[in-house]
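Q: Got a minute? One more chain.
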Amino acid sequence: MSVEGFGITDVGMKRTNNEDAFAARPDLGFCTVADGMGGAAAGEVASRIFVDTVSEVFGGALPAGGMDEKVKHAFTLANTRILDHVAARPDHSGMGCTAEILAVQGDEVVIGHVGDSRTYRLRNGELRQLTVDHSLVQEQVSKGIISAAEARTHAMRHVILRAVGSKEIVELDLLKGRTVPGDIFLLCSDGLTDMIDDEEIMKCLNPSAGIQAVAAQLIARAKAAGGKDNITVVLARIQ
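A: Always. Here it is, folded:
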């Protein structure tokens, strides 16, 4: 099987700078999205460090290994590099990023996830969120304290419990599975999912449309809904 990948990012309607970063490199077997935090240049630096590190790991500049090992290594190395950057630049203290990696080889897929960026999969007309947000409101939803609908507008919905660059050891979720022809994976920052719900996302994911057009439509809908944050969308279609 082969993979077609495409990504796009937009500053949105309210922000003046874009702290998101992405790479769609099916030729190297990966796609990634990172959403920087820390304000101004610091968030932008963190997300760029992450994406550049993933590209380096999957580009073969570092020792080869299984996909799950590469994904874990990319998160660990990026975490170290962000912490080292903050040590050298104390004025950037507090910077970090949420991040997704999708790695595909043959019919095997590995997903690495930290924070509240998300990875979805469309299969046979069914959209499924594969990752679980590492956020305060998601923790409350999981405990039954609030509903998923309440979480969407909760005042504390942007409080993140895990991020790359926030601790000495990064805690990541690692998911493994198999792909089937026709699968479409969506990696996105919360600038998309804060603006449009899964039902709206599903309306855009037309399997017969080109993924470039689908990505553009997702960005457009998020902006039309207010575009309060940077918006990043990466799509990978299994051929």
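A: The two ends are 6 Å apart (CA to CA).
Q: Perfect, thanks.
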